Amino acid sequence: MARLFLSLLSGAIFGLGLAISGMTDTTKVQGWLDVFGHWDPTLAFVMGGAILPMAVAWQVSERMFHPVLGGAFPERPKREVGPNIVIGSVLFGMGWALAGLCPGPALASLSWGGVGGAVFLLAMLAGMLAAPPIRARIDRLTLKRSSMDIRALTPDYAVSPQIDPSDLAAIKAAGFTTIIDNRPDGEIPDSLQAERMRLAAEALGLTFVSNPVTPGMFTDQVIETQRKAVENSSGPVFAYCASGNRSSCVWALMNAGAKPLEELVGAPARFGYNLTPLVPMIEARARR
Amino acid sequence: MPIDWIYGFLGGLLIGGSATLFLLFNGRVMGVSGILGGLVDGTGWRDWAERAAFLAGTVALPAVVVPRLWATETHITDNYLVIIAAGLLVGVGTRLANGCTSGHGVCGISRLSLRGIVATVFYILAGGLMLAFMRHVLGVI
After folding, report:
1. Percent of all residues in chain B with a pLDDT value above 70, rounded to a whole number
2. A41 and A95 share a domain?
3. Nearest to residue B40, comparing CAs of B30, B28, B48, B50?
4. Domain range enclosing A26
5. Both A36 and A138 in a single domain?
6. Taking CA atoms, what residue in B is nearest to A95?
7. Which range (A201-205, A252-256, B32-36) has the least confidence?
8. For A57, which of B12, B24, B77 is closest by C-beta distance?
9. Which of A85, A129, A143, A159 sits at 20 to 30 Å (Cα–Cα) from A213?
10. Do A99 and B116 count as a contact with CB atoms less than 8 A apart?
11. Shortest distance, CA A55 to any CA of chain B (angstroms)
12. Chain A within 8 Å of B117 (Cβ-Cβ)?
C-alpha cells in the first residue's frame, strides 16, 4: 500500500511540475528546439531544476542499503551505447519537434489537451506497441556485425575465437545447429565455462558438445569425439577455442586422408591459422 | 521572458523532487515512457499497480489543480496528420531508445549515465533539425 501511495504521490508531483514549468505548452518545447527562429531557453531551466535534486538523490542512494520501502536500487547503467538508443532517440526527437510533446507532458495535459492531445496519446501508445518487433529486427541486423567472427573452413564447419553466451543467438541465426567447445575450463572465467555455455546453447535449441583440447595434445579420443559430434549434427557445426586454432587442427586431423592435404592446411590458412607444423601428424594419420 | 524561466526552474525542481521520491522510496527510475510502455507491451505487468498509480497521479493532480490556477492552453497543432505522425514517432522512438526526456534526460544525466547523455544529445539534435526543416523550410508547423 505504501508503495502504491508513493507512486501516486510521485506521479502527482511530477504532473504538477510539468504543468508549472510550462512543458505542457507545446510552444515552449518547440521554442527550445527552434534555434533558427525565436529560441526559448525555458526548457534548459526545467532540465537544470530537475537534474539538481536527482543528482543528490543518486548520491544518497549510494549510501543506502536499499530503498526505504524495500527492494533494490536500479543497477548501474551499462556503458555500451547500442544502435537502438541512437535510432530510437532520433525518431523520438523528430516526433517531439513535430508536436512539441513528450510522454510526460502528454499525460499531464490529458485533461485539458482537447482532442489533439488525446489523439497524440493514442498514436503514442500505438507506437509503443509497435516498438518490440522493430527492436528485435534492429537487434538481428546488428548482431551479425558484432565482434563475433565466424570462420567457415567448409560450408558445414566453422571455427571461431572464444565466444560469449550472448553470441549464441547470432550463431543460431547463421544456421549452425551444433556448438563444440574445444577450450578447457581451466583457461577461462566462470561466465564462459562449458556448463554455462551448455545451458545457454540448449536453451536456444542448439546441441552443445564439450571437447576440451589441451594445447598441442591432439589425442585420438579428442579427434573421435569431434568426429562424432560433426557426424551426429543435423546441420553446420560451430567449433571454438581461444583463437580457433585448436578447433582447426582437430578438424584437419579428423579429416586426414578424407580430404586433400592442401585443403586441410589451406582452408585454415585463409583465416591466419598456420597448420604447417601439423603436416607430419596429418600425413601419419592419413596413412593409417 | 525571465518569469517563464523561473516557473520553468521551479517546475523542474518539482519534477526532480518526484523522481527523488520514486527512487529513494520505491527504488525505481522515474521514466515515463518506460512506466507506460511496460504496461502497453506487457513487459511491466508484474508491477502494474505501481505503474498505474504513478500514471494516475500524473494525469489527476494537474487535472484538478491546474485549470484553477494557470492557463491550460497546450497550443497543439490542429493538423491531425502531424499529431499522429508525432505520436507514432514518440512512441516507437522512446521504446527503442529505452527512455525519453524524464528517464534519459532527468534521471540519466543526473547519474552521468553515458546512455542517457548520448540519448539526450541525439533527441535534441534530431528535434532541432526536424523543427528547422518543418517550420522554416516546409512551413508545416
Report:
1. 99
2. yes
3. B48
4. 14-68+83-143
5. yes
6. B86
7. A201-205
8. B24
9. A143
10. no
11. 5
12. no
Asked if B62 and A19 come within 8 Å (Cβ–Cβ), the reply is: yes
Cβ–Cβ gap A116/B8 under 8 Å: no
Amino acid at B129: L
| Whether residue A232 is found in the same domain as residue A172 | yes
Inter-chain CB proximity B84 and A101 less than 8 Å? no
Confidence of residue A141 (pLDDT cuts 50, 70, 90): confident
Q: CA triplet A266, A268, A270: central angle to 5 degrees?
A: 70
pLDDT in tens, B3-16: 999 999 999 999 99
CA distances from B134 to A29, A101, A121, B82, B86 (A): 15, 16, 21, 10, 12
A7 in a domain, yes or no?
no
ipTM for the predicted complex: 0.97
Residue A95: its chain B contacts at CB < 8 A?
A: 85-91, 93
The answer to whether A119 contacts B18, with C-beta atoms less than 8 Å apart, is: no
Residue A175 included in any domain: yes
Q: Can you tell me the mean pLDDT for A82-91?
A: 94
DSSP secondary structure, A100-141, as one string? S--HHHHHHTTTTSHHHHHHHHHHHHHHHHHHHHHHHHHHHH
